[in-house]
Design a protein that fits this description.
Helices cover 83% and strands 0% of the residues. The chain has 210 residues and is mainly alpha-helical. It has one domain.
């Protein structure tokens, strides 16, 4: 492996570093997505039951049972449960934007790597070809084996760049799809909160103290 990296030169090492960064981000995002996810229907049922019964302590227990994005949305709503419905709508929209920002964190770096890696590979190939033809010009006659070996080395960076870019772009697509799904889930959760808030009197019928 090190031999291949050395043959590709400095461009290969940069591509290798980008692959490690991409892998680290993917692992970190997978862990975050797992921690930030929850069963929305179960949460809504438990929260709705507690609010309908006027059991504020149980409502707090429900929203604090997890640190998922949905739980964080419900917690913010419960903290400000005594505000009017219009303000509640604005509050939940703001919280959704905050949560989606957390979900999108570092994904743009993956997108950049997916675009940059093949370009770096192409750059490495061009530089390799330039170096080879320069050697031909200086050295005069060179065997066909030497020429093909030089071309192989030059093309190796393109292969490496594409090898990094293709799975990175694919994973980006999966992550963005999951983010879109979470955005929709949070918006449905916000609609549920507004319905519960209106049913509870729009903040007129109780506080939010634990």
């Amino acid at each position: 492996m090190l031999d291949y990296m050395n043959q590709g030169g400095s461009i290969m090492w940069i591509i290798g570093a980008l692959s490690l960064i991409a892998a680290a981000i993917v692992v970190e995002r997978i862990i975050f997505f797992h921690k930030a996810s929850t069963d929305p229907e179960k949460l809504e049922a438990a929260f709705g039951k507690a609010v309908s019964a006027g059991d504020v302590k149980e409502a707090w227990r429900v929203v604090e049972s997890s640190d998922s994005s949905m739980n964080r949305l419900f917690k913010v709503a419960l903290t400000h449960w005594n505000i009017c419905t219009e303000d509640m709508k604005l509050l939940t929209e703001q919280q959704i934007r905050r949560e989606i920002y957390r979900w999108e964190k570092h994904v743009y770096i993956l997108e950049m790597i997916g675009k940059i890696a093949p370009l770096l590979g192409l750059l490495g190939t061009v530089l390799g070809m330039v170096e080879m033809f320069q050697s031909l010009h200086i050295g005069g006659q060179i065997s066909a084996a030497t020429v093909t070996g030089g071309i192989w080395k030059a093309l190796f960076t393109t292969v490496a760049g594409l090898t990094v870019a293709i799975p990175t772009i694919f994973v980006c697509g999966l992550l963005n799809s999951r983010i879109d799904s979470e955005d929709e889930t949070l918006r449905r959760g916000a609609d549920f909160l507004l319905r519960e808030h209106i049913a509870a009197g729009g903040g007129k019928n109780g506080g939010t103290q634990k």
